[in-house]
Each structure stands twice: as C-alpha cells, then as structure tokens.
Amino acid sequence: DAPPNGPLQPGRPSLGSGGDFYDVAFKVMLVGDSGVGKTCLLVRFKDGAFLAGTFISTVGIDFRNKVLDVDGVKVKLQMWDTAGQERFRSVTHAYYRDAHALLLLYDVTNKASFDNIQAWLAEIHEYAQHDVALMLLGNKVDSAHERVVKREDGEKLAKEYGLPFMETSAKTGLNVDLAFTAIAKELKQRSMKTPSEPRFRLHDYVKREGQGASCCRP
Ligand SMILES: Nc1nc2c(ncn2[C@@H]2O[C@H](COP(=O)(O)OP(=O)(O)OP(=O)(O)O)[C@@H](O)[C@H]2O)c(=O)[nH]1
Ligand SMILES: [Mg+2]
C-alpha cells in the first residue's frame, strides 16, 4: 500500500490502508542467516517486546509497518522480514530490487553467520539496487558469555566494505530503535530536495549515537 516515493508534500500526508498517516514511505528489508534474530529485532522495534522461547523460523517473507516521526516528517517504514533459510532464497531474491534499505544481520554468538556476511554482500550486490542504504548489525550482544565474534571484528569488516555498523540486542533493545531511526533519517534525507539542510551522515550518526562496548574502549 506504499505510494511511490515522490517528492515530499508536507501537510498533505497519505493515508495508508491501515489508517496510518504518513508523508513518505520506504521499504526496509532484513537479511542474514537463519536464527540471527531478524524477526526478533523487528518485533522489538515494532512492539517493544522480545520473542523468547521456541525459535519459529520465518517462512518466505513477512511484513510489518511502522510510522516514525523524523524531524517533523512522518516516515512510514514498510519492513520486510525475510527467511534466512537457504530453501527460501529464491523467494527473497525477488524482493531485493524494491528495497530502499537493507539491514544485514549476523549473530555475535555464531561465527558461521559472521563468515557468511561476505556471501550475503555478494547476493545484495547481485539483486539489490546499487544505491540501496545498507547497515551491518551484530545481534545478540546480551549473550556475553556465548560471544564468539568480537566487536572489533565486526568493525573491521564494516570498514572494509564501507558500511555503517552497530551491535544490537533484540532481547534488551540495545541500539534497536537507533538502527531503524538512522535508516529512516537517511532515507528521508535522500528523498528530500533541500540542499540548504546539512547532509545527514549515516556513518557519523550511528557512530555517535550507538551504545555498547564503545564505552569501554580506551
Ligand atoms: N539472547 C538473544 N537471543 C536472541 C536475540 N535475538 C533473537 N534471539 C533468539 O534467537 C532465535 C532466532 O531468532 P529469530 O528472530 O526468529 O531469527 P531469524 O533471523 O528471524 O531466523 P529466520 O526466520 O529463520 O531467518 C530465537 O530463539 C530468539 O529468541 C537477542 O538479541 N539476544
Ligand atoms: Mg525470522
């Protein structure tokens, strides 16, 4: 139900089919290995809750909407929660093309999910728009004892590919709102033709606002 993302018309919000008013809408897709916490991250952001207990793997693709107020502009994020399982890959490939932003997740307690990031990036390169807004997230940082991927490893990989990076926890909520807000700010800025406004810098914003281990480094 998202309208085409034409120029903003403040004061003339669109009415979504769910009865939600918004000025501009974007599609954000979550990708990464099965079990890294994509669905939990989305549920945490949307409902402020954590899905503990039995892991229910996503089948195909799922949708959730949320309207955010970004500096006085109502930004609707239509969020696509993809299945990480290999057997659904052909289903999710079809959605990449329409995504304005991608959140690429790995699980800091699962080395394989981190090692697979490069394969995910290759897939993104193949199927997504070349200018898609992309952010790397290392999830489950609440599980300190099970951690096998160091924060520095995530930072290094992100730097190598020029990606903004944060560690998150769907369980505690750490940096979850921030990740989606940062993406919304970036997309809003890109869609607005106001050269007078200082350019929003996703990298700097995430670095400045992100919480976590950065507090403890020298
Ligand atoms: N400790 C901890 N557990 C988490 C976190 N996020 C998710 N989990 C757990 O990890 C498991 C997988 O989470 P999901 O969100 O369903 O994973 P997914 O990436 O959507 O997996 P697929 O749908 O198969 O692609 C569940 O048992 C969650 O409870 C987190 O931040 N911390
Ligand atoms: Mg899922």
From TrEMBL:
It catalyses: GTP + H2O = GDP + phosphate + H(+). It is an enzyme of class 3 (hydrolase). One of its GO terms (biological process) is protein transport. SUPFAM superfamilies: P-loop containing nucleoside triphosphate hydrolases. Its cofactor is Mg(2+). Its EC number is 3.6.5.2. Transmembrane segments: none annotated. One of its GO terms (cellular component) is membrane. SMART domains: ARF, RAB, RAN, RAS, RHO. It comes from the Eukaryota. It is found in: Membrane. One of its GO terms (molecular function) is metal ion binding. It is a lipid-anchor. InterPro entries: P-loop_NTPase, Small_GTP-bd, Small_GTPase, Small_GTPase_Rab. Its main location: membrane. PROSITE patterns: RAB (PS51419), RAS (PS51421), RHO (PS51420). Keywords: GTP-binding, Hydrolase, Lipoprotein, Magnesium, Metal-binding, Nucleotide-binding, Prenylation, Protein transport, Transport. Belongs to the small GTPase superfamily. Rab family. This is small monomeric GTPase.
